[in-house]
Design goal:
heterodimer; A: 270 residues; 19% strand; B: 108 residues; hypothetical protein PF0899 fold; three-stranded antiparallel beta sheet; 6 strands
């Protein structure tokens, strides 16, 4: 069960690969084994045990494994988070078309159902894995690991992880990314950073998207930027439109500046 | 909450206990977790397990934020907006308040 919203995480999720490079398909995760039914004599007195274990320890450990994979392979991994419809897929489609010409990109995309996004992002030069989460409202590190295993990531320099559209739960789940990207579109309210602060708090970069229509919609970019600065002073702020192309060069520049040094010899596959 | 229950059940099995009397969680003010939701989830997921009926105790951990300009920590009391009381700068370095852990359990 997700920590915030009470969705069930125990459903098996699927991974579908849309890629000429990686034809493998993965089996869904088997359901968790039941706790062992140990029959033993009852303890004589109440026993107090100090445990001190993070409830997210399992996810955090998986995230660290993902992170060291990316590090060993000299890859920049980004976790893209936003409300549904803020423009994650459109941003990525243009990014892999333009930036992806010079730097090899791969995409792992999560949705509850359908492989529509993977189809939209599918290019001959871009390995794409679609993760369907069933009812889970966010990606976790284990799902991403399966997506990674399904793709031939060895040649990739940048791995984009497009999270499930949700501004709440993804905040708690580290996927092993180096950079967390939070998108806020001009079709939303300027005060969204104030309403959903944890996710903005965790952002390395915030992209104000669809700024080509901001004027028509009466969206106040300066007010939105001010709200972002209050909640997330650590985050870099970029204003982009994946439709008009405005600001996209700054976004690519940001990506280039965060690329780790290329690794000469690829490490053995996990 | 399922992960908390999994941790509890492992302890129950390891110590050959029959039931759980008390579960203590440490929850930071910035953990992004609603205490009432936690209680509700605990009731639901513990049903039919040795933890059913156990007392759920929540220890709250207040937020503590560091201001790099003033080189000091201050309590983060205004939700997620941390303006330093010294210089007024908005700060982002959270020193305490993200905790979300199973702290202690009592086995019967």
């Amino acid at each position: 069960m997700c920590l915030e919203c009470g969705c069930s995480q125990s459903v098996p999720f699927g991974v579908k690969v849309l890629s000429v490079i990686a034809p493998r398909l993965l089996q869904p995760r088997p359901s968790a084994p039941a706790a062992p039914a140990t029959v033993a004599p009852p303890a004589t007195a109440p026993q107090s045990l100090e445990v001190h274990t993070s409830l997210l320890a399992k996810n955090d450990a998986a995230a660290e494994r993902n992170r060291s994979f990316f590090r060993q392979h000299g890859q920049l991994a980004l976790n893209l988070v936003s409300s549904p419809g803020a423009g994650k897929t459109t941003l990525l489609a243009r990014t892999v078309d333009e930036f992806g010409r010079t730097e090899r990109c791969a995409v792992i995309v999560g949705d509850l159902e359908t492989d529509n996004d993977a189809r939209r992002l599918h290019r001959p030069h871009v390995p794409v894995a679609q993760i369907t989460t069933g009812t889970a409202c966010h990606l976790d590190a284990e799902m991403v690991a399966r997506g990674m295993a399904a793709l031939d990531l060895a040649a990739a320099r940048v791995v984009f992880i497009e999270n499930v559209g949700n501004l709440v739960c993804p905040a708690s789940f580290d996927l092993g990314e180096a950079v967390r990207v939070v998108l806020l579109s001009a079709t939303e309210g300027e005060d969204k950073p104030l309403k959903y602060p944890p996710i903005f708090k965790s952002a390395h970069v915030v992209l104000l998207t669809k700024i080509d229509v901001a004027g028509v919609l009466g969206f106040d970019c300066a007010a939105a930027a001010d709200n972002i600065r209050r909640v997330a002073p650590q985050a870099r702020l970029l204003q982009v439109s994946a439709r008009s192309g405005e600001g996209m060069e700054e976004w690519y520049q940001f990506l280039r500046s965060h690329l780790p040094p290329a690794v000469a010899v690829a490490a053995p596959t996990r | 909450m399922e992960s908390a229950l999994a941790l509890v059940q492992r302890q129950v099995a390891d110590h050959h206990a029959q039931r759980v009397g008390r579960v203590v969680l440490r929850v930071g003010a910035l953990a992004g977790v609603e205490v009432e939701s936690l209680r509700f989830a605990f009731d639901v997921v513990s049903r039919g397990t040795p933890a059913e009926g156990a007392t759920l105790e929540i220890e709250s951990v207040p937020a503590l934020v560091f201001c790099p300009t003033c080189q000091r920590e201050f309590p983060g009391t205004d939700g997620f907006i941390f303006a330093c009381p010294g210089c007024g700068d908005f700060c982002s370095e959270i020193r305490q308040g993200r905790e979300l852990e199973l702290s202690r359990i009592e086995l019967l």
